[in-house]
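ok so I'm stuck.
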Amino acid sequence: MILYTVMPMEEVMQHEEKRSVLEIRVRGRLIQIEPVSATEGRIIRIISTDPRDFLDPGTQPGRTINIWGSP
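replied:
not stuck anymore, here's the structure
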């Protein structure tokens, strides 16, 4: 079968489910998280134009945080 498309091959052949993503504010920074439980989420990315926001170890992608803000 030949498929002619302008879409990237990775997107066409993608078989995994779309994951749920939430945008929340942590320490005044907007971040995207993927919920891993009812109270915790894994940081996916930081949404900011300030380079200093990316240096904070508390909001680094991959880190698990409490969604509701309590430690």
